[in-house]
Task: structure prediction
Amino acid sequence: MSVPAYTGPLGRTWHYVFLGICCVVFFFLMAPIMVIVPLSFNIEPYFTFSEGMLRLDPDAFSFRWYKDVLGMCTQKATEAADAFVTSTKVQECGSGSNRGYEWAFAARNSILIAIFATLVAASLGTLAAVGLSRTHMPFRKPIMALLISPLIVPIIITAAGMFFFYSKVGLAYSHLGVVLAHAAIGTPYVVITVTATLVGFDETLIRASGSLGAKPLRTFFKVIMPLITPGVVSGALFAFITSFDEVVLIYFIADAGQKTIPIQMWSGLRQQISPSILAVATMLVAFSIVLLIAIELLRRRSERLRTSLPS
Amino acid sequence: MAKATQPIMIDGVPLKEQLARAERRKKYIALGMVLPLLLFIIITFAIPILSMLFRSVDNPRMVTIVPNLVAALDDWDAVDLPSEQVFEIAFHDLTAAKKAGHLGKVSTHLNYSLSGGRSLILKTKRKFKKIKSGPYREAMIKSDKRWGDVHTWAVIKKVSVPYTARFFLNAVDRDYDDTGNVIQKPEEYRIYVTLFLRTLWISLGVTLMTLLIGYPIAYLISTTPPKISNLLIIMVLLPFWTSLLVRTTSWIVLLQTQGVLNDIMVWLGIISEQERIQMIFNLRGTLIAMTQILLPFMVLPMYSVMKTIPLYELRASQSLGANPFITFFRIFWPRSIPGIGAGGLLVFVLSVGYYITPALVGGSKGQMISNQIAFHMKSSLNWGLAAAMGTILLVAVLILYWLYDKVVGIDKMKLG
Amino acid sequence: MDTNQAEAYVSFNEVQKSYDGENLVVKDLNLGVQRGEFMTMLGPSGSGKTTCLMMLAGFETATSGEIMLDGTAINDVPPWKRDIGIVFQNYALFPHMTVRENLAYPLEVRKTPKAEINERVDKALGMVQLEGFSGRRPGQLSGGQQQRVAVARALVFEPKLVLMDEPLGALDKQLREQMQYEIKHIHENLGVTVVYVTHDQSEALTMSNRVCVFDDGVVQQVAPPDVLYEQPENAFVAQFIGENNTFVGTVKEASNGYCVAEVQTGESLKALAINIAGPGTRTTLSLRPERVSINPEAGTCDNSVQGTVKELIYLGDHIRARLELCGQDQFIVKVPNAARHSHLTEGESVVVGWHSEDCRALDAPA
Result:
């Protein structure tokens, strides 16, 4: 944004004030995320910059919290897999000095639960979005409202409801229960993104494919799927991160056997806060940057495809 | 288009009917694709919530454990002490409950409305053993003189109805008195109305703050060339994609008394070592953290509306003699209001039900209604009250959701 | 209307189409297209021409009647088995495939050997002069280039028939005219049968062997462009194709293929009797502006009327004059820009004459 030559001093001043305000807001957005990155390398067990760090003294930095989280658990990680089913054993191990073990176990749970929840959400959500986008869909509005509602209903209400219901039907304290719960709150994202992709879908492409000799099934896989895939994948990534970041449902309907990274952080934050949380947080930030880049690339691809047609 | 002189028939069936059939078939196909998810959401999400809401009026405990006593008290006028007959039924029901091991449940249930109710009931375990035969009235009063108090019986009668509005009354700091009138609770017990109001104020405050600081950057992003604006959008999206717990952790690290911000201020000499400011674990902490966490939800809808405002309209305005300020207020601002509506409603809906952030950085003054619901679910185990508060919260959210649909349209909801 | 329908390559036999069971968008269509012919369906929007095309392509089902292609009824053949190439209005190029992949698509689904696919795609690209663009995606091409890819894709699998649905609508005027010639030349070189839909009459006249004029779901006339222009069979066609002067009158007498009609202001005009019901009925008299002479030499024209010049517009090669005569103030005359006529001035009173065989008495206005 540059100022045109004819701008007066008042306009010019205001322009720079405005840019200044924007910088402050962006700083407010980014600073809290960025500040934990250097702090996670603090050799001291404090949550602030030591003098050594400010002098950029290499001795003030260390990987000790990362080692705490990752390093010591390489052998134990395999054991964690064995202990996976028996939550009692896990608690025994976790209560010991070996914190890395707990994180490895939590990471494994987090990833497994998120992957399965995403698979359920993405497949059901895509199918439903394709159905909702058909011109003949009856009751579109109320159904859409219901399908999107897990996004809107306060998580505590969802958690409370699931707590009672899942206990009654025997799904509480199980991986299956958590997967189903996470899939339920992840589907709105898939429905929204795939529906949005289908809004721009050009129906004549289907006709064109037919006229060129392709049968409907081939048309679906060669023409429709490639064009809606960006929407499906970005919806799936949203569902994945939703599950990966979710605390409250697990806190209500699961126990130590389904402990995930966020739950581990949650209890860490509520009890004694350890600097290894910062190491985990930094790794999660890196992870979200990767996901964000993936989403952005997908968005651009789908935009490119969409704008390539004369309207 | 000309009218056909008579209904068009194909193989003896009116075309209209055939078309309707084809239409119906297409409807079923579309519905069939939606059905799996619809059933999934109904079973895993909607039914659990509805059945939870039912708990807010459901009061089955007394009716199932001491059914005869409940029936007997139904006819009692709640003015004089119950008759010997009622005492006898009470004795037998409570003894039966003790044998079935349900006495604890009765005591807990009574304790919500009658202080000391737990001990009164649990005492019967020992005391009732001594009572071999009637008259039970005197024997029971002898075992504990509270049995001779009309108030005790009135409370038992009150908590025994199968369906009750009591939890809802409790949720708004009210209760029934012994004669069934709705009264306000004693001053020191009135906490929930304040909490609801505080939740409302926090949500409004967060909405306004996100609007205030989100509007300029949404404007900036929508008016800069794509190369820069793409980078800026990523900066808005990154917090959106970063774990909520990570961001909450960061705020604790930044704002706590031994945290980064206080350290910097001490180092710069703005405050002395003793004057470190308590910026977190209070209302301020909740407001600051929630504003930052919900900002992307405000910026993105505003941005998606602003980028549809065509540049040529602004140029037209300037060519017609309006300076950039007038152009902004007469053209850009009114055209951006739908975005403000969309973002504002979304942020408000999300903040009303916020739980994690207040729980971690809110201290005691920064708690919201969700935290109280969690407390009743997990700690006090007063599920009826939790359900009643949840129902009120859910109704509020659904009204906002409905409003969002009217103003923005659910199908226009976008992510990033 | 079409005498050769029995031997036609493509034919519609008593085809009707209704979308809602009450209103007919296409009424009793009988039409034949010869092998190798370039047939254009011309008509205003909503006249049913695109519906006909979509029925032929198989995306709409005829409510009744039969559609034949190369001797077999294709009503029940799905689109992908019809072997009909289509150029869509918005081209419908697959945005996720390159130009080459787009062109290879119809060959791949037909399981053509790889080497042959390459060869045929290259040939098709050469035909539309896009040799260097095979690796690009549609989004990286200009509108004209996308158009050419669409044409090449519709032709590459050597379909029995090519349909084009207003393919040039999205292009600017100059490019449109250039593409008209290109498509015409491709048609001439390949000898493929083309059914082309447009609402642009000059496009129809430029490109077609025959034009089929549609209005209100009914074929108004099927004829080669020159016949259509010179000998319209009804008032709609006369009005829709080219510029036209009309008078509304009542038939006084009819004989020997000619008739005399009396117009509103009392003048009697002689015209060819083309489409009239008989004496006493109303008729529309149609006359092309370029067939009218101003101040003709006495005795050369068998119709002559007094008129007043209302407006003159200079158009280079000719002057367009608007006259008032016979109670009609929109009477247009094209005066060649020759020295003899340059003295016309606005407000001047002139004699206007024409030959009765240039004036056609058609059906009465609705």
